[in-house]
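tool_call predict_complex ligand=dioxothiomolybdenum(VI) ion
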Amino acid sequence: MTINTKYVGKAPNRVEGPAKVTGTAKYSAEFEVPNLAYGVVVSSTIAKGRIKSIGADKVLALPGVLQVFSHENVPRQAWFDRAWKDDIAPGGSPFRPLHDDEVKFSQQPVALVVAETFELARYAAGILEVEYKEEKHETDIEQKRDEGHAPGKGKSGYKPPKSRGNANKALDEAEHRIREEYIHGTQHHNPMELYASTVHYHPDGKLTIYDKTQGVYNCQQYVAKVFGLSKDDARVINLYNGGAFGSGLRPQYELFLSVMAALELKRSVRVTLTRQQMFSIGHRPHTLQTLEMGTNPDGTLAALKHYCLHETSRFEEYTENVVNWSGMLYQCDNVHLSNQVAALDVYTPQDMRAPGAATGSFALEVAMDEMAYAAGLDPLDFRIRNYAETDQSENLPFSSKRLRDCYHLGAEKFCWSKRPMAPRSMREGNRLIGWGVAGGVWDAQMNKASAKATITADGYLTVESAAGENGTGTYTIMTQIAAETLGLPLEAVTFRLGDTNMPEAPVQGGSWTAATVGTAVQKACQALGEKLLKLAQKMDDSPLKGASLDDVEFVNGQLRLRTAPEQSVVLRDVLQTSGEREIAADSTAIPNLINMAKYSMHSHNVVFAEVMVDEDLGTVHVSRVLNVCAAGRILNQKTARSQVLGSVVWGISMALMEETVPDHRFGRYMNHNYAEYHIPVNADIHNIEVLFVEEEDPYVNPLGVKGIGELGLLGVAAAITNAVYHATGKRVRRLPIYLDKLL
Ligand code: MOS
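tool_result ok
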């Protein structure tokens, strides 16, 4: 059965849009449960040391304060004597809040104050006196340049592919060479919605947990393992996320603290982190990268070396895939890639939208621009000259790759051919104008997922799978796929997600939800279609007798023969004749391992940026960004475009504004609030255009989708950095490009 295109590939509005704008969409801290108590976290003021005392007595004397949990009284049976972790967690031992008196990072949770009201809990947490014995800390990766080590411990530790050719020799012999270091600081997850968990404690001791997470099943597993519960005892629900971007791939400490408090107090508890505490839940690591490149006389790449060092915590070895992309984006026979980590007294870094690739593509693509200039070549022409027809790292053909078409389409739309090569050659009054180009590559991944499709006698279809909705459009695209597969109007289909009572889906991440859950939804609907066909064939005088599923199609509420569309039955008649109140089918979809072994599956993009730099003030105005993406089939033009628009805004942020600034004397992030952690506002955002070059890809998955959640961020910061060079002649190699760097 193939997918028709009544809905798939079109641009329907978000099906959950009305729920969101009218406030009926509920987020984790908004669920009303009876007899709720409120927990507020107290965070460490030191970066490293021991807790000497927790002054709980004074706080417990306040009427309405229920308990002060700390390492002194945290229930042993409940807490992480089992240091359980999931398959995608970094190597090492996950952070166990309130486990003992040791402080491992600034802002570590050291106590949870629970009270009858939120206001009281907040007040009580504010006056809790915690005494520490400080120890010497290290928080600066730039002091650890020589102390990095290759990752080894982590199951998910990224290791670069084997070197190919001889990069050192090729560099020695190259016509032109560059070698530069590129640096970006730390960025913290700051989705609009704060991390929160509302735990409903039922009279029988079972829990319903509304947690801000990208994976309800992952949270359920943790809760069951850590607290020794059966999975039936802990149902986890998340219907909407106010943004997550990777911060909810692993459970955060509000989940464990709220569950622990609920089990101990035998009542419902909600824990919400403050905006400042959001700066303690994982971050994009501060990263140092070095790129070396050389070219042959014909402008082809002779050699490429990419080295990265980034921070991790003392207790987990988080690694990021920063360098691997450099071995596959361009054709080059002499490549050496390496990455190292160094442990600091910080919380473990964490995946943040296009982890590794967003930052790796910054360094690689600025270096490509520098190399193009060193070789006297137009930066886009230089990329086209070095186009990778195959994935040399894997030694595999791409399942599909239309990056060349992206280059040509983007160049034409942006009028790239009008770009003078020399920096400082375009201006408008006192504003220097520059054009830059950059791009990237991201994995097209799929995982195992299950879905269940149920149709009722009135012809109304409900499909469920415990997927996530980070604001990406999951509800909408799954509704489209289901409606398309069974030939129903969108209004007759409801997609439900985010509940461990539903069939299992993986965490929503890696841009794999469209492929993963989409395929499961399609398969469940096909399985239901097969049941409906059998029922239709049982009807008297059925024109479909003897037909297989491939012979029929579901269109406009009818089931009909492909070869003779007038031979049809009305779906509702089938259901009514069957006498069943509802018919259901479930299905599990897994990736095609044979195709995965035969093809390299990736999405690609290219970004063109125009900046205007005030010559006197050094301010950078990003006047135009064009992002052209090749990501297989686009399921919904509107939600896909929104994903890329958001990415471009984030890329502008990364290039010009966003950075968590530590004061290493205290080992503490000083701008841990929205006032001083700068991100763009509307006034910073101007013309953004998004184009898709669609790819027919029969190998990635049955839907042919590659995912679009992360791709759009790649190359944005580099394109802006390159445009700034073109405007000013100043090469910036450390993000963000604060204006003093241009004066
Ligand atoms: Mo994404 S960083 O895998 O949520």
